[in-house]
Amino acid sequence: MAAVRLDYVAPWWTYWLHNFPHFNFVFQPVDSTFKPEEANYQQSLIVLACVGAVGLGLSLQALTVYLVCLCCCHKDTDGETKRPNTCCVTWSAVITGLIICSAVGVGFYGNSETNDGVYQLTYSLHHANHTLGGINSLVAGSLGNVETGIKQHLERLDEIFAARTDFLQALRFMQLMVSNVVRELTALPDIKKANVDLAAIADQTAFIEYYRWLTYLLLLILDLVICLAVCLGMAKHTRWLLIMVMAFVMLSLILSWASLGAGTATAVGTSDFCVSPDKFIVNQTKDFLSADVAHYYLFCSPNLPNPFQQSLTISQRSLTTMQIQIQGLLQFSVPIFPTAERDLLGIQRLLNSTEFSLHQLTALLDCRGLHKDYLDALMGVCYDGVEGLLYLALFSLLSACALSAMLCAIFRVWTLMGSREKEYDDIDEEDPFNPQARRISYNPRRSNIHSFCSYTSSLGSEASLHPPPQSASNAAPPPEYMNQSMLFGGSPRYENVPLIGRGSPPPSYSPSMRTTYLSMNDAQARHFGTDFQV
Is-annotated flag, keyword Secreted (predicted)? Predict the structure, then answer.
């Protein structure tokens, strides 16, 4: 009778991924049924993983075309004197940085969701493995009690009751009950192989998941570091920092496209399993589990009979019958054969222990426990796991596109830095209004060199403007304004100094400076007359 699944429904995104086209290496359509052991299905997943390689190739091709166009445009504008506009580059860097930060947020969420789903899967597998291990232990313990312990006691009682036919008949009947229990317990399915498989799958899955989670975490941190380094490189205009950033951007670009391909193939393969998980599990367990047993645990429907119910009922009735026979022998045979009491009590203890184990076995063989673990594993993989993989694929796609745009912005910043350096190289360093002139270190010899006008004007006002020379030991320190100017500009500031020793007038005059300047012009006129007037 067919069972109806009401407790598990595959999410819509698994059907969407399941409908992705599956092609092998020669681009022939492949059935999307989850068959990981078939070569064609493996090839279809590899083809899906190559989507990342195709994206990487397109990104590198686009970057190459942009770099060639940038170089050509830069050569065409070498002769122009207009300063390039950096607003577009700045906004491009800001937008790409925001996109990368948003993608990193999506990636953190997807990584956490995938990790939660895989953890739920491994926890359910370990719990189911513990249940199966308990079943194996109870079956083995019950068989040991019946086959070894009870049979030994019955053999000794057979020797003791050799003279009593009625007691021997009770022993023969008990041996028949022991054979029934052994036969029914042996008929139970051997689930030791399933126990080992679940443990191996859980451990391997946890191992792979740890390194997957760590790899994505490092990639997310790398993207954040790249955003910070790009901001610093563009603000400081540091070439070595930009070179290092370009190397890390290329590395992150390659990893992003690789993660996109791997994530897409994993999500599609997992969705193929989630759409029809029962069929795959029945095919995988057909060597050691019958179809009715597999369906009983996979569906756990009230309409499905318990395949172990008959065996458990027969075993329970056989144990109860033996308990009744032991009670009668203890009552009637012990007064006649006192030596038989020890073996009869030993059989009674073994029957009690076996009966208790049989009750535990009945509870563990019920479908509700293992079915719950099965549903939890499906929910973890098909809901949280696949959803997290989709978010990680979105992160990889956004990050790859944003990193490509960031590389274009870095290339543009590099050309702008070259243009700015060329503009500074064209400026005359002897120009007194050049901002770079203030960076030239102060030379005390240079301060004593006067222009022609300063020297001639000092002839007429030497006594009034210049103090007498002092010895080296009594030389006064330079004025405070010169010390401040040497600290902040590298050369003395002359804005508050008279025009003695200056080759050009200051931008403004104080009243005292104007008086001094006019007196110097009068002295020059008296000394030279009108020889130098124009």
Answer: no
